[in-house]
Design brief:
The complex is a heterodimer of chains A (about 775) and B (about 140). With about 775 residues, chain A is mostly helical. Chain A contains 36 helices and 2 strands. In chain A, strands 1-2 form a two-stranded antiparallel ribbon. In chain A, a hairpin with a 4-residue loop joins strand 1 (about 60-70) and strand 2. Chain A starts with 5 loop residues before the first helix and ends in a 7-residue tail after the last helix. With about 140 residues, chain B is mainly alpha-helical. Chain B has helices at about 5-25, 35-55, 55-60, 65-85, 110-135; strands spanning about 95-100, 105-110. In chain B, helix 1 packs antiparallel against helix 2 (about 35-55), helix 2 (about 35-55) crosses helix 3 (about 55-60) and helix 2 packs parallel to helix 5 (about 110-135). Classes of the chains: A mainly alpha (about 775), B mainly alpha (about 140). The interface of A and B includes residues 730, 731, 736, 739 and 754 of A.
Chain lengths: ~775, ~140
């Protein structure tokens, strides 16, 4: 076993984030060389992870971590097994190529620094996701990939299409992420385990739990949105609005595989049931076919590749669903093959775009002589994509045919795989058209791309070839450990590059190639036919997304109109109606208080005060003009202040006097200032409604007060304040001491509110439209 | 509303009320009163003066803009609270200095500064609202 300090790897996996921090500065300082310099970070990580391959191949598995939020049982923890290691190698390895490529592709572009930063942030998020052991850590990085890809897709934020695509990706994948979170939380609740490793230790706990269905559906939902399964697939082709290095990286090689990764990660604990296998196989197969059919219809090179990515993801999900040893091995091989050829092809498409100014395959042509190195990379990648020997794509196809054949012979799954692969073959051939067909009118005169643009695709394509030629090592070191991790048990497989006999997979391959050639011959006719068909249908999930979003906005507006009509009258009535309900419901549930007066009978002159207050009130109700109403309301208020005084609350009474005085003054001023009508015109219905609300509030308060005074008085607080007011705060007036000493923070806040309200009122008075004056 | 009697008595009433408001403010710690009530009384005084002589006269007499007054008050209250932190006590703890002045014990405290701040905020805010409303533009 290679000695390595796990904790160092823990922090190393955060290196992309640090590189992201320095990226803008580095780009400003070194310009075009920044891509090469920044690529050192993923390259070093790749070397580190590659060093772990032999150990993992021997069946080792590393877990390590530190406490993150111990009170919640959340750790920042990693697990390195076959699955996470392969993904980590893809992310860092292809990441290296992409960073170099991005340096060349965006040379001289004003926001290159920011772009590099986003790209590295994304890399860090993706890496964090695949190596995460803790369930919450996994979710955090999962959502980080959504957020960083949002930034990347919407990078060219001045174009509306880019903004829409970014929002769409965020809404769909972020929404799915929430489902995943719910699933992960349920997993923790059901099993009591906080880590993936813990779950694997008792694999049947989740499957036997009553909440299994919910968990499985939530996890599948999260994975499907991320990996663009039907009907959530539309965000992925739209995400092609991003600059090409982004498409090459997150939308073919890594991010979209995050969903597949999640499915693979949890297959050992959630898989093997009818629900899991059925759902994955069905939706995976549908996505596979939808992807290739929609891909045929495109003419933009990037769009074609994007739809075949959708298709490939469908194929992977389908294979995970089938779940036999060979199906999983096929999925693993295909995942690696796809990452290699699709990452390379996207970079090729970008190079073509960069050198010719267009990506339209009906216009492009004759590039074979102009861009020979790019041609080599493209041909190698396309052969792998088409599934021809001796490339890794061929091995993948053999193994997956073996898997689906052994699972059910001539089944819908087998037929879907056959049709899809044949179409994939045709598309792979179509991707090479720009090199060989007669050239059309291209915006730029093509010439070979610079080193940084062809290096990545060429290296990836060659690896795709070597991986197949050294198949024995590839299987031992990479595929078997990963497939075993996905299956949850060690697998042994018998895979050869050259088929030894005419077994069913070989026959299927021959059929695929033959029908692929036929389909390619019919490509143009197929494209127009599919386009006509789609126009006839006229609706798709993409438009559905727009409709859902606009329905959401309209719904929000409708609700806002109802609950916030913008008239003061409504708000006030509403507030008081709610107040009346809160006051009246408890007495009716708990029984009415006894309506007897507690305390001493008041003196005769007390009655005079009450009488004046009531008369003031009656005048308010009967008043014909506003001024009379205001003044008589003041009279009533002053009487209330007197009552406070008579019953021993001088501070309260004092304040009440001043507030009453000032409110009469200010109300009178408001009346002259604002162009109000002199008197109050209210329809009888509204008067009744207001009266009822007011009376109910009054009755409610009366009942509450009766209830309060009938309870035994708890003197603990008043005793405390009376006892300590003088000792601690050196004050004899308990009310004031509480205000300025015991509860000074409250007072400070209130004073700030008074001032804020004052400024707001000033603004309201001053900033009126000129016409109103 | 600027009758002769009102105009003649308004300055005296205002002066008395302002004086009274300060009295109320200072006695607040031991007797009914305090910054909030004091501030309201002073604001009423300003309103009365404004009704009698108009907004311009009030603004001249006040010299400082009421909003500035309120801002200073808020700052005073906050600083009085923060002072406790520098004295090594929790935020807003009262600090007391009992000094001898002419044979009499005069207690001074950060709490008083706090209360004066409250007073100024209330005077400033209410007065500026009242003045803005009175102003005929």
């Amino acid at each position: 076993m290679t000695p390595f300090a796990p904790q160092s790897l823990l922090w190393l996996s955060l290196a992309p984030f640090i590189a992201a921090l320095v990226a803008p500065t580095l780009v400003r300082m070194t310009g075009a060389a920044a891509g090469w310099l920044l690529a050192v970070v993923p390259a070093l990580l790749f070397v580190f992870y590659a060093g772990l391959v032999p150990d993992i191949a021997h069946g080792e598995r590393f877990t390590y971590g530190v406490d993150w939020a111990p009170s919640l049982g959340v750790r920042y923890a990693h697990v390195i097994d076959g699955l996470s290691l392969t993904f980590a190698l893809l992310i860092t390895g292809i990441g290296t190529a992409i960073v170099i490529y991005a340096g060349g592709y965006l040379k001289g572009y004003a926001h290159q620094g920011r772009f590099m930063m986003y790209l590295l942030l994304f890399m860090g998020s993706m890496l964090g996701l695949v190596v995460a052991d803790d369930l919450i850590t996994l979710f955090v990085f999962y959502e980080l990939t959504s957020i960083t890809s949002f930034l990347l897709i919407g990078f060219d934020h001045k174009r509306e299409a880019a903004r829409r695509a970014a929002v769409q990706a965020l809404v769909i994948t972020g929404g799915g992420g929430l489902a995943l979170l719910a699933g992960l939380v349920l997993m923790r609740l059901v099993s009591g385990e906080t880590s993936v490793t813990g779950l694997f230790a008792a694999p049947d706990v989740l499957r036997d739990a009553p909440a299994y269905t919910a968990i499985a559906i939530l996890v599948i939902l999260g994975a499907f949105t991320k990996s663009a399964q039907v009907p959530f697939h539309s965000w992925l082709p739209n995400a092609m609005e991003a600059p090409t290095p982004v498409s090459a990286y997150l939308h073919s090689a890594t991010m979209v595989k995050a969903g597949v990764f999640v499915l693979m990660r949890f297959t050992p604990v959630l898989g093997g049931t009818a629900l899991w296998e059925g759902t994955l196989t069905l939706f995976g197969g549908l996505t596979f076919l939808t992807g290739v059919i929609l891909g045929v219809r495109q003419t933009d090179l990037k769009q074609i590749l994007a739809y075949t990515t959708v298709a490939s993801l469908g194929l992977l999900v389908m294979l995970v669903g089938v779940g036999t040893a060979y199906a999983i091995a096929g999925a693993v091989l295909y995942l690696i093959a796809h990452a290699l050829f699709k990452g390379g092809l996207f970079m090729v498409a970008g190079a073509i775009d960069h050198e010719t100014g267009t990506r339209d395959i009906t216009v492009l042509g004759g590039l074979a002589s102009k861009m020979p190195i790019t041609l080599v990379a493209a041909v190698l990648a396309c052969l792998s994509m088409a599934g021809l020997p001796p490339f890794i794509g061929f091995v993948a196809k053999e193994v997956l045919y073996d898997g689906v054949w052994k699972a059910g012979g001539i089944s819908p799954v087998t037929i879907a795989a056959l049709v899809g692969n044949a179409l994939m073959f045709a598309i792979a051939a179509a991707v090479l058209l720009p090199f060989f067909r007669r050239p059309g009118e291209m915006p730029k005169k093509p010439h070979e791309a610079p080193l940084s643009l062809w290096l990545g695709p060429l290296v990836l394509a060659v690896i795709g070839l070597l991986g197949a030629l050294l198949l024995h090592d590839t299987m031992e070191l990479i595929v078997l450990p990963m497939a075993s991790a996905v299956a949850g048990t060690p697998l042994t497989l018998d895979v050869h590059l050259i088929p030894s006999s005419l077994k069913p997979p070989v026959v299927l391959t021959l059929i695929t190639i033959a029908s692929g050639i036929v389909l390619f011959a019919l490509f143009g006719r197929m494209r127009s036919g599919i386009a006509r068909g789609l126009t006839a249908i006229g609706w798709g999930p993409d438009r559905g997304f727009d409709q859902a979003m606009s329905a959401l906005v309209r719904g929000a507006f409708a609700i806002t109109r109802v609950i916030q009509p913008g008239t003061m009258r409504f708000y006030v009535s509403f507030v008081f109606a709610v107040l009346a309900i809160t006051l009246l419901v408890p007495p009716f549930l708990d029984g009415l208080p006894t309506l007897e007066f507690i305390g001493t009978m008041p003196e005769t002159y007390h009655f005079a005060v009450f009488a004046i207050a009531i008369v003031g009130l009656l005048i308010v109700i009967r008043a014909k003009t506003r001024l009379v109403a205001i003044v008589s309301l003041g009279v009533q208020g002053v009487m209330v202040a007197l009552i406070f005084m008579l019953y021993g609350a001088p501070d309260l009474s004092f304040t009440q006097f001043m507030v009453e005085t000032l409110s009469v003054v200010i109300l009178a001023l408001v009346m002259t200032k604002l162009d109000l009508q002199a008197s109050d015109h209210r329809s009888p219905w509204r008067a009744t409604k207001d009266g009822v609300i007011a009376s109910l509030c009054g009755i409610g308060f009366a009942l509450m007060l009766f209830q309060v005074v009938q309870r035994p008085f708890d003197t603990r607080l008043s005793d405390f304040f009376l006892k300590y007011a003088y000792d601690i705060a050196h004050g004899a007036n308990v009310v004031n001491v509480i205000l300025v000493d015991f509860r000074a923070l409250d007072t400070l806040g209130e004073v700030a509110v008074v001032m804020g309200a004052g400024l707001a009122i000033l603004a309201l008075i001053r900033v009126r439209p000129k016409t109103a004056r | 509303m600027s009758t002769l009697i009102f105009r003649t008595t308004a300055p005296y009433i205002t002066a008395l009320m302002v004086l009274f408001s300060i009295f109320v403010l200072l006695r607040g710690h031991n007797e009914p009163g305090g910054g909030f009530i004091g501030g309201l009384i002073a604001a009423s005084a300003i309103a009365i003066y404004g009704i009698a002589y108009g907004v311009e006269a009030v603004r001249r007499a006040l010299y400082i803009h009421p909003n500035a007054l309120a801002g200073v008050g808020l700052a005073m209250s906050a600083l009085a609270g923060i002072a406790a932190v520098f004295a090594g006590k929790p935020l807003l703890t009262g600090l007391w200095f009992i000094t001898e002045f002419g044979g009499m014990e005069v207690p001074l405290s950060s709490v008083l500064v706090f209360d004066v701040g409250v007073y100024l905020v209330v005077v400033g805010s209410v007065a500026s609202i009242a003045l803005a409303l009175e102003e005929n533009d």
